[in-house]
DNA sequence: TTGTAAGCGTTATCAT
DNA sequence: ATGATAACGCTTACAA
């Protein structure tokens, strides 16, 4: 039952050769006769030998593993990103360790800790909503682990970034809403210490200024991200006499809350209220009415982030040539914002 | 820039003590003066020291890490399971490595390989739909790594299991549908080599036999799980003259497909067609009509699975006392199956 | 209480 | 082409 793990020494003994030779054979070192390679691999399979990664990593100082930290893994936006990263890791024979922060700063620190201890070759991070400081992230660099920020990011942190053009996307959404004849458009934003959300806010404001309604005060609500907060704000907003005729949110879950509140108040969507979200979560397409949303090309975001590591950072000895990758977004205009 | 990683030797030198003493201090060994512990930890923070897990694991033969393998991480059923496992791992100061198979057998083998190489202390697995053989899973035991199957499982494999009472749940769903006056109830099943799906099928058949319609042939479709397959079957089923008046599926994604097809054909749900799914995915509650589904208590499944490892397997030196944990389910009867 | 030294399973260097 | 040996960073007997 409790037999020891099979090591290369066991293999070596079983085959009458040395451990170092076995190691080289398993790694297909060029100096080794292909027949020997085959024989060793066959024996390894026979004895159910599995390489001990810890030993190999310790020796090599590299773990052939990337780490990814996201707020939630059960949002299709992030799980698509992860799928993209996985795809590229797979191509390069690397593993992936996934951590989720649940938007908590403390969990983010913990995740960073875990990944550094695991000696991952690179960390891909989408910042938690709670995070305002960068100390825990700066420490990553001291371990010579490259950091790539993806989607959500902190501007003050010096790292590669893979992003959307959030300002443009938000601007485009506003054009779409104006085009549908909506005039009193409210904006439900996220935490503005994250540049990503600040940019969406900028896009909203820019579009407002460029519009025929620029003399009116824009209906802007910052940091309405948490479900409990967003519910309260929507309550007030929709029960108000001068309620908005459209609501643009920086996430799809905010949009769902808006839709549900509207339904409970008998406000018709999209006739009386237009709704536009962000991230193109899977459920937006199957809801009824279906929810308009910004497709951020999440899987491609993941692919590009991983490629920044493999094709740029790694090839240039840790010093990236590319600093920012900007991906186009696509407006998925659905029932919730089409009334013409 | 490219400084070496800080080790306990660096700490030791900086403090004028030995490395082993540092190690013990960091691990809060009882023999160590609390002041020394504090001082060492302070210095460690100051120098941004992070323990090299690979080295520690290699030495200790344990990684303080669990591994979990699931078909998809972006289904709330599985992500809730993971959240549950995470919670318990966190309590016990363990990390978690998450792998997804995308229902592919090959990917599952790869994930097992990765986790064994990473020397995880335990593997929690929900089998991929494609998997019919157990060889790759039996090899896990040879490495003295305990395996816990969760939700989806292969009966022929000797391992701990954390499950729902699937037969009962399916039986209950049928009672609910009969209670709503549905009579021609079709069953869209999954791959029956996975016992989980076989049990749901059994529950359906049992309920059928116990019903007033037992003389009629049950409308049973096995292995209608893949989206492309399910779409075809639904197409035929709903365009048929004698189409069913209710459809019970073993997953929520099948139910969504049914709902969408029904809508496109102008079949009213729930009046003309009742729909009942399985897993209680997040989106089922926000759809319109909302989808009835079986709540499998997914987070609790995860919690219990992790506890089987920490509270049972680990405490009994790898030999579990508990072999099966069965969790009750709850019927979430929503708009899609209520017509009375 | 503190230090010395061996060893975990690999791989890389240096021989042969 | 093949083998001996040291080293990766840590923990743990054992010694002092």
TrEMBL record, chains A, B:
User: Recorded GO terms, molecular function?
Assistant: DNA binding
Q: Which Gene3D superfamilies does the entry link to? A: 3.40.50.2300, lambda repressor-like DNA-binding domains
Quote the SUPFAM superfamilies the UniProt record gives.
lambda repressor-like DNA-binding domains, Periplasmic binding protein-like I
**Which UniProt key words apply to this protein?**
DNA-binding, Transcription, Transcription regulation
Keyword Transcription in the entry? The reply is yes
TM spans (from-to): none
Record domain HTH lacI-type: where: 6-60
Question: What CDD domains does this protein's entry cite?
Answer: HTH_LacI, PBP1_LacI_sugar_binding-like
Q: What InterPro entries is this protein classified in? A: HTH_LacI, LacI/GalR-like_sensor, Lambda_DNA-bd_dom_sf, Peripla_BP_I
Alphabetical list of SMART domains matching this protein: HTH_LACI
Question: What is this protein's record name?
Answer: LacI family DNA-binding transcriptional regulator
Organism of provenance: Flectobacillus longus
